[in-house]
## 1
Amino acid sequence: MTPSFSTYLVNDPFGDPGLYVEVKWARRALLFDLGQNDALGPTRLLRAGEIFVSHTHMDHFIGFDRVLRVALGRGKTLRLFGPPGLIANVTGKLRGYTWNLVDGYPLAIEVKEFHPQEVRSATFLATEGFAPREASPRPRSDLSPARPFLVLEDPMFAVRAIALNHRIPSFAYALQEQFHVNINKERLHAAGLPVGSWLKELKQHLWQGQPDDFRFTASLYFEHRREEREFQLGEVRDRFVTITRGQKIAYVVDARYDDENEAKIVELAQGADIFYCEAPYLERDADKAKERYHLTAHQAGLMARKAGARELVVFHFSPRYTGQGEAIRREARAAFEDLLPASLSPGGRGEGEGGI
């Protein structure tokens, strides 16, 4: 199966947090957190139309300015989602600049912040000097503070969040593909049909839940000709498509390890194909981690195992461990695989760099 999402950290594990998720075949991306993002070129940033902010501590939000600068002057809408206070934080960022020459610019910024009882939203238009237009709050239907709630629903996927305790709400996110559409190219070729953009249309119809008797016209591009052909969705699906479980990505940063946070994280990340989890501290410094409302590598690995994640990627390492990146990965891996971490064995202290 070719995954629908291609994911990678914006920076190295000692840099600012950020996860870039490319939606394959769609020229579209999602961005989780807005730390320093110079590593992303303008093209990648412009593809990230939806941005999910955990909270607005500087290392998670300083990259907003660069996104704004790259998007300014483009016919684009940026959509930001996050915790209470996000609208005020975006307003403050925008008020830090003078906008007397942007009245012809087409950029729009839409912000949604999720409170325990309601959702607040605001729109900022370049044509209005980014003065905030706040809409009336709407009540939330999913009011359980212990359960993940829906932040964005797309025909292809959904993004859910949960509020974690970081002395302020810090949102963790899960991206879940509705289901995965696998195209059998050998059967296509045997039927004399080409691959191409018409398959994107086919997938969209399936994700949208169109009925089997739904008919659609697609443009087929052969080697020397273009042809319009009508298809019946159910027939095409039965001949050329296999439906499998959708891909799931979890992203967790900045949370203290306690029973409530653990239960929330394990539920959010349940069955994740890739679980991106912060690991700023080694377990030997668990008291410091608790004091600073952060996780240890051992705790990250333990929760990944409890969640049944297929792969764990740890990041957001504290600079106090510079040169000990491999020790952090090793401790997380040991807890994930239910082994005794070297850092917890008598006298054990790992050094070095590497990947988990």
Note: The chain has a mean pLDDT of 91.
## 2
Amino acid sequence: MDINIILATASLLLFVALLAYFGFVAYHQQQIEPDEKPATGVELLRQHYGPGDTVEQPTPYWVAPIPAAPDPLEISGNLDRKIVAGGVMLFALFGLVGGYLLLEIIPSGPLSLRAAAADKQMETSIQRGKNLFANFCYPCHGKLGLGNGENDVNGKPLPGKPLNVAANKYDTLKEDPSALKTREDFLRLTITRGKANPAPSYSMPAWGASEGGPFNPEQVDQLVTFVMRGTEQDWADIVNIRTHLDGVDNADVVPPPPPLKPTGAEAAQVYCTTCHSFDAGKPSTVPTAPNLGHYGTEGPINDQNKAAKASDADWLFHWVSDAPKVKPGIIMPVWLDKDGGSLDEATIRSIVEYLQSLK
């Protein structure tokens, strides 16, 4: 049984016994001590005057009758013993409370209530994170958490990244607190914000409530805890949870098809119009960004690209992929995913073809 429950129950029972004991002492003392009934009125006069005596100025006073039994000294001795016994019980109660508080502040070890509570909370977080994964993450990251290392029922790799890997495990990182915190923060941020990928690849949606998703911060932390601290048995439970979900006939869920690959014009509208204008006569959002409406016939514009065009047939692809490499200090970002951007080569080439077609 949990030591918290044992100590709390013992403290409560001792406190109730203490109250009952002092109540008994008060009641018993009242029973063994005789009542002192004061003599008043005629009774008082008869104690001091005979029949026919003249009562000039009586002086009333109390006369305590001598008790029959028990002896007053015996009563006093019993009361002392009861007071001592009550004091022992009271100090025992204080000792239990002090012991409970002492076990609370012990940082670790088998007797640490704090460590026991942390372990229980960790177990609860893993269980809740496991259920969240089975409900929301399963279709893309797989029943074993291996993501694109698993195949769907059609034999195609799943779109999600592998999560059940050594690089995410607490046991792998616990000896390096800095690496452990970095990985926790990375997983938490990725779950909260999601990760946009160019079509036709899947994009991971933002799950955090701060980004418009359905999960509050506690649920995000529960998912992170499950990914980093879940055992192989916890991962094996995912299929069982899926099987018993309402409306799920089996655990083999195929993710929906990814969106269609955008055309060059569509990709340019999504990624280029943040800075550039494609409408003739309309200035770009960023003053230094050229209008691309006639880029196919008027480009290149800057000197670096004019020089590159003379010797490089693929100059425009290189410019769109990694403009800072061609012209250091330019504000145009890197777009090619191999260089740290967010677009694959096929999408960039479709944008280049579209730009070269503009007249």
Note: The chain has a mean pLDDT of 77.
## 3
Amino acid sequence: MKVSVLTLGCKVNECESRSLIAALRKAGAEATEEAVKADAYVINTCSVTGEADRKSRQLTGKALRLNPDAKIYVIGCSSQNNITPFLKAKNVIYVGGNGEKLRILEYIMSGIVPEKRNFICDLPIEYEEMPVPSHEKTRDYIKVQDGCNNFCSYCVIPYVRGRSRSRALSSVVDEAKKAAAHTKEIVITGIDVSSYGKDIGSDLTELVRALGDIPVRKRLSSFECNVIDDELLSALKDSGFNDHFHMSLQSGSDDVLKAMNRHYTTEKFMRAVDSVRRVFPNAGITTDIIAGFPSETENDFKTACAFVERVGFSDMHVFPYSERKGTRAAEMKQIPMQSRRERAAILGEIKLRLKSEFLSKQMGKTLDVYFEDEDDGTVCGYATNYVRVYSDTAAPGDIKTVKISQLFKQGVK
């Protein structure tokens, strides 16, 4: 039996899909993450935005175009959030959410069509272990945590993922050791990595130190400014973590941050940035920004733009605000979508300029680069600070020290 697992959304989803593929292969199936003709399709959905929901629904149609006779199984955030459209979709015989994801195996492997299609269950209150995925990529992601307790006013994730719950430290270390045999960089990921350990008597600093002896490059995928302190920064430095910090800002206006239920001010965020740069002077600091949040006035937006400039991010992901039904922000007076897009475009221009300025600061510096693939015949990869570096002499899989001399394409050379 051939099974194709199609995934949308975050790296956590990707980790879970790879775990499911490992379980399917162990059970005897020919499983792949490629969109190819198969006997069965697993759609692992995303619901972070309305667009993500739409694309999740479209994947069922894509599967049918690959094989009109295939059985389709749906899991993930979008189905957890709203099961109805998936129950109506053709050939969908199983719809689950984010709990008990491995239950899907018995139906796929037996080929039995269940009497019911709704398999949404209560979200777990403890971390659910999944099979260790096969680590086959140049850079691998290791899931250490699930769920979120923050309840930002714009976000549906706590409702579809449940409360924060952490993976046992020994389990994380075991997977990291296995990954190190096949990859040269691991990225620690989760829905809210900053909250790691709070429910099991540990914390993020302990996790970082526990990974210190793993002989690969290491990076945290994303975390909140609130968790930054001297102890964590010292642990990251001592444990050989990369100098790349993805710290989600969401808005550079204190009034908007309060309305978003983000638990910090711009000044606290700036202090965290300054702390990072004292320990990691050439750090790449990236972020997420939402444009056009319901309470964002023109003055709020100007303030936000000024703050983004002050921080000097190395890169930004910019999104126009997307209403999520069931959240507090969705009940607020909305800014017209055209205005949201216009503000996102302005932030996009700032992003490009700040990125160019950061890349220019790399001139003459020596960077450690992990070369992973090719772009139009030129080998490329990422420095520890997540600057994209191109080379005419490296090969994919090389880790090399490179002296930067010029801007090139989307990075440097």
Note: The two ends are 46 Å apart (CA to CA).
